[in-house]
Amino acid sequence: MNQRVLSERARRVIPGGVNSGQRNVPGLGDLVIAQASGARFRDRDGREYVDYHAAFGPPLLGHNDPDVSAAVAEAGRTVDLCGVGVTEDEVELAEALTELVPSVEQVLLTSTGSEATFHALRVARAATGRRLVVKFQGCYHGWHDAVSLNVISAPDRVGGKDPISAGILPEVLDATLVLPFNSADAVRQAFAEHGADIAAVIVEPVPHNVGCLLPEQEFLRTLREECTRAGSVLVFDEVITGFRHHLGGWQAISGITPDLTTLGKAIANGYPVGALGGRADLMDLFSSRPGGPAFFAGTYNGHPAVVAAALATLRKLRSEPVHEHVFRLGERIRTGLAEVFSSLGVASLVTGYGSVFVEYFMDGPARTYDDLLRNDASMFIGYRRRLLDHGIFELPLNLKRSHVSYAHTDADVDHLLEAAALAAGAQLATGAELDLSGASTMGGAR
Ligand code: PMP
């Protein structure tokens, strides 16, 4: 059955035809994935793509890494979810996370990143007895209500006026303040006005949900200082940065240690694992009596198959030159793309970190979300749509980042750079003809 027929069947029984909001990509409504391996996936009609979208970030080792797959299969032969007690692998994984991530003294496993950020905010409120949460423009922390302000919400649109979804109580959104990223002054001012009521500050240390904004040290230091002074809980949401940028996350790179850390994505190379870790006195609130004072639960938490995937992923990240490889290819891509766009005379800012790259079509630099408003969305999306014709998949949605994995090769990078020149050249020549309707929404993020 070809993919047009299959995707029509999907739309009849799955709302929007896909199982997550931003898999619904304009122009790709008929895409049916048939096979994935290493740096590539193939669609149902037999077209193969070199995959830089990487499922929004998990497969740092590449799709279906054989060592990870073998560990999952072995877990399936020996143990199963029993819903009581703990397995040896769960203990080993928790010990590994406490060793690797500076802030993590104790850790709990979830199935997703959203659950981890949800529980981080819950325990921060439980610990402080306070109401407010501070988040930053451009950061995404999952689908739950407290953080469901549109990633582009401006500070003056706080208070439920700009939610990512219908169906959220305005009073929940009222308890979330949105500040501009990289503004130490805005942080100081928010603490001066509301400090005694701020339970938590949650931040993506690198807001990759709008591509890549690199954090200024002074900004991160100010978060740490103000939270410490006011007795608020600082949460680094390292769902993307954790393991991908460093085994200890951005906190190991920056030397700034939060109170709580949320993890996910690259931790298990694509298997559903999230984690919430941090200061033992905070984490202990989940255990000081059965079910409380902070409640934490989940039928699938610590499932043996996904824990085995996480252990196998971490083992490989520690024993093979994964970071060296993906950082080198990432740098080749950033440098190469900047040269390609400059030789075509198109304004571009090619940025990223390590294995992550993003090509904005604008003059640099970009410090805050507002700077990204200069990006030419139609060039960004049109360029990426044209890359598809060359067998390259970067998600054709505005401001999305791209990722390199351990399975990508120098030949893949050569291919990308050749295709980039052709795709950007063609888009510059005929860009206005593309229908970009719906493809430049920046409301959601993954
Ligand atoms: N935090 C960040 C920084 C994320 O990027 C995401 C998902 N992209 C989440 C939290 C939510 O994770 P999940 O989709 O696994 O619930």
Secondary-structure element sequence? HEEEHHEHEHEHEHEHEEHHHEEHEEH
Quickly count the domains: 2
Average pLDDT rating: 94
User: How many strand elements?
Assistant: 14
**Structural class by sheet pairing and helices:** alpha/beta
Strand content: 5-15%
Give the helix level as a range of percent.
25-40%
CATH 2nd-level architecture of the largest domain: 3-Layer(aba) Sandwich
Number of helices: 13
How are the strands of the biggest sheet laid out side by side? 4-10-9-8-7-5-6
Are any ligands bound, and if so which?
Answer: 4'-deoxy-4'-aminopyridoxal-5'-phosphate
Shape: globular
Q: Biggest β-sheet, characterized?
A: 7 strands, mixed
CATH class of the largest domain: Alpha Beta
CATH homology superfamily name of the largest domain? Type I PLP-dependent aspartate aminotransferase-like (Major domain)
* Unreliable residue stretches: 157-161
CATH fold call of the largest domain: Aspartate Aminotransferase, domain 2
The end-to-end span amounts to 30 Å
Keywords: Isomerase, Porphyrin biosynthesis, Pyridoxal phosphate
Protein name: glutamate-1-semialdehyde 2,1-aminomutase
Pfam families: Aminotran_3
Cofactor: pyridoxal 5'-phosphate
